[in-house]
Amino acid sequence: MKKKVDVAELEIGMYVAELDRPWLETPFLFQGFELSTEEDLDEIRRYCEFVYIDTDQSRVLPQTEAESKEERSETNKTDPELAFGILKKHAPLDQSEKPEQKYPDQTTLEQEIALIRETHDEALILTNEIMEDVRLGKTFNTEGAKKIIGKIVKSVIRNPDALACFSQLKHRDAYTAEHSLRVCILALSMGRHLGMAAEELEVLGIGSMLHDIGKMRIPLDILNKPRELTAKEAELVKKHVPIGVDILERTAGIPEAAIDVARSHHERYDGSGYILGRKGNEISEFGLIGGIVDYYDAVTSDRAYHNGMSPHLALKIMYELRNTAFHAGLIEEFIRCMGIYPIGSIVEMNTGEVGVVATMNRVRRLRPRVVLVLQSNNVPYPRPQTVDLTQVSTKNGKAYEISTVVEPGLYDINPTDYLTVNPLEH
């Protein structure tokens, strides 16, 4: 049920279903969201006088004349809403007794990039070697994979943004190996966000790195075909799932939960996926996460037959697919994990300048750090400059704000040229 509420009466935990103005006139990415931070409250009060909340999806309800504070308190006590960082009514598993880890950042972005750069390069080399070994029918280096995943997990726990920057380094001709490593990084970032223990993250990381291993038994001319696949070719590509599962099951030392990422990453929450057509809680948590991060990386990456879309647009589409293709609670958490403006997004500012999102802000999600690349007249800055949207004002003394996200290619900007993984004198 929707209820009209003055913005002064809004509280964290209320679910906003409708604004008093068009959504496109506000900075909010999606229509319908839970107020989860003080920044959410501040932002919505800046743009609206009243909103409509969905009382069925709200954890905190507005007080009415018929409901006393005591009654509302008792309602909240018995409301089984949150568990393991996602809405319990959406949870794929019973997490009620599972301890949740909290991971504050231990390093800055720059510090972590220096720490993890060599490990990232080693991981990419190893991933390529594993793929080639599988292609040739050889036993691959499981111990090496576990060792490198352990290092990646430690980095993600310290600060996930560094590896997120490295994952922006993409090449069309090296898609499968790079995709596998990017999916691993995305899954681990998601697992960290959900509060998984380090041991769980290591299993999730192994499964994510090896999720597409079956593709090494699919002919390269089909995998790299620059045009749409025929129905027969598409069916052949789908076989990479059972092929990959079979390879992993015959490989010593691969946990079953890790294998399930390979088994389930193309299953969909409504049963429309493949190979088994599983749906809902028939899909494990690792399988659901694998499906989300695999899809996200695939649609945001350039391939032989299409150019990738912006991360912002990908998240919007995925949100619209909640409760159909994807688990609603996990999609909401994935968006919180990635940020409204994911690293590498190309954005237009309220000043007319154009920049690249360099670092997300996990506290104030609408205020990331941005590298300004183009001036308001679209002339490149001689030296790109970094602005922290929580601290820096425009020349006119106004707050720097992101007006919109643009699709890759509009300004002929390569985001990785302006991220710390490719250092510039900002």
List keywords for this structure.
426 residues, 3 domains, 14 helices, 12% strand
Q: Give the full name of the CATH homologous superfamily of the largest domain.
A: Hypothetical protein af1432
Shape call: globular
Which CATH architecture of the largest domain is right?
Answer: Orthogonal Bundle
Percentage of residues in helical conformation: 25-40%
Give a structural overview:
- Helix 3 runs antiparallel to helix 4 (142-158) and helix 3 (109-135) packs across helix 6.
- A hairpin with a 5-residue loop joins strand 9 (369-374) and strand 10 (380-388).
- Mean pLDDT is 85; it is low at 65-99.
- The longest helix is centred in the first third of the chain and has 27 residues, at 109-135.
- This protein has 3 domains: 2-79, no CATH class; 109-338, Hypothetical protein af1432, CATH 1.10.3210.10; 346-418, no CATH class.
- With 426 residues, it is of the alpha+beta class.
- The strands form 3 sheets. A 5-stranded antiparallel β-sheet has the order 10-9-8-7-11, with no helix packed on it. Strands 1-4-2-3 form a 4-stranded antiparallel β-sheet, with no helix packed on it. Strands 5-6 form a two-stranded antiparallel sheet.
- It is built from 14 helices and 11 strands.
